[in-house]
Amino acid sequence: MRNVYMTDELEAIYRQTVDFVTRRVTPMGDEWEEAGRVPRAVLREMGELGMLSLRIPAEHGGLGLGMLASATFSEALGASTYAGFDVTVLVHTDMAGPHVVNSGTPTQHAEWLPKMMSGEALLSIGVSEPDAGSDVAGIRTRAAKDGDGWRISGRKMFITNAVYGDVTIVAARTDPDDKYGITMFLVPAGTEGFEVASKLDKHGWRCSDTAELVLDDVWVPESHILGTLHRGFYETMKNFQNERMVLVGMGVGAAQRAIDMTNAYCHQRKAFGGTLFDLGAIRQRMAMNQAKIDAVRASMYHAAWMHDAGQDNVKEMSGVKAWGAEVVNQVMYDCVQFHGGMGYMRESDIERMYRDARVLSIGGGATEVMLEEVAKRS
Predict the structure, then answer these.
(1) What is the total count of domains within the chain?
(2) Using alpha carbons only, how large is the chain's radius of gyration in Å?
(3) With helix as H, strand as E and coil as C, how does 162-209 read?
(4) Is position 3 within any domain?
């Protein structure tokens, strides 16, 4: 067992996922980075293997597992070394997907869950806006009742999977008198007035597509409301801990790969009559990096266990997100440093992994926001 929270089932999920990304993702990652997208065929292959069904209830054909499964899955994805691939999958399975599972009607479940599990339909979650990222209550996109449906107008920013995806879960203000009066809507790609204003050019996560979206008087029927009218803010908050966790999880997986790669490089890199690993300053710093990642991993799994045990884990998971994302970035910094000049070259894996890690302390709740969540509960 890799840790005390692991079961045989979770161990099998971890091994299957690491095997898959090692065989099917890492060899093709550079090509996907250049193209700026992950091929849908790969996602469908994951669907056939059941990898997109971990959190789907058994009554709908999924495995019906809990947050510990997502922690395991996200860490294993990190072994790919291509975080853009990891986030493409995790936005679908663990950021957007849970909204459909938790808030969908039987009709919505019947329409979307099979497509989500097979990889036929790729989901995105449209909450962030140019002036509202972590501040969900500050969104300006609005929806007004129109006949037997709703008209939505506004802009969304930094929406992963929305360029090539099939449906976006859009948060819009439906009660102008209540700052929390937000509703979630299912908006399929191709809906009239719903357009990708631009495909964003990112510092990292190059093989994930990220969009700026425009909703220009978009009409959707009443049946496309996801969840309870005016309660979307609270429904969104319920999933934030899972979103924060999988970002940390993929970071932990990537950081472990970076540590292993750097230790191997330092063992073979000749310097000063020996190898770099012979230098105490380097091997002790790498040992400290390993200790830090082990601690982040343990904290993440514990916070996930709390959720699965029915306990409130907001303080714990917010702390893991704040500290864990910063630690991953620190580890990546050292790994680039100890690769020397090669660490600065685009041909090295560690250079890409360093860029990919930077957004972890921003996305899913910036470090400063997470620390406020901890402080409010201290």
Answers:
(1) 3
(2) 21
(3) CCCCCEEEEEEECCCCCCCCEEEEEEECCCCCEEEEEECCCCCCCCCC
(4) no
By three-state DSSP, how is residue 141 classified? coil
Tell me if 254 sits within 8 A of 328, measured CB to CB.
yes
229 SS3 class: coil
Cβ(159)–Cβ(204) below 8 Å: no
Number of H helices, E strands in the chain: 12, 10
Residues 192-213 as b/e (b if ≥16 CB within 10 A, e otherwise) read eebbbeeebebebbbbbbbbbb
In the listed set 183, 202, 230, which residue is the last one of a domain according to the structure?
230
Name the pLDDT band for 228 (thresholds 50, 70, 90). Answer: very high
CA nearest to 82, candidates 24, 16, 41: 24
pLDDT at 1 over 50: no
Give dist(CA 16, CA 18) in Å, integer. 6
Q: Residue 270 burial (CB < 10 Å; 0-12/13-18/19+)?
A: exposed
For 149-171, what is the mean pLDDT?
97
Beta bridge partners of 271: 274
Residues 220 and 344 in one domain: no
Active site residue 316: no
Question: Are both 137 and 221 inside the same structural domain?
Answer: yes
297-325 pLDDT per residue, tens: 999 999 999 999 999 999 999 999 999 99
Contacts of 260 (CB under 8 A, 6+ apart): none
Catalytic residue among 75, 212, 235, 243: 243
| Alpha-carbon distances of 73 from 80, 89, 362, rounded to whole Å | 12, 10, 21
Q: Left if phi > 0, otherwise alpha if psi is -120 to 50, otherwise beta: which for 219?
A: beta
Domain carrying residue 364 = 233-376
Strands 167-173 and 123-126 come out as parallel
**Cα dist from 118 to 12, 48, 73, 217, 320, whole Å:** 20, 6, 17, 32, 31
Q: Do 371 and 239 share a structural domain?
A: yes
Q: Are 174 and 210 found together in one domain?
A: yes
Q: pLDDT-based confidence at 132, cuts 50/70/90?
A: confident
CB 70 within 8 A of CB 94: yes
d(CA 15, CA 315): 30
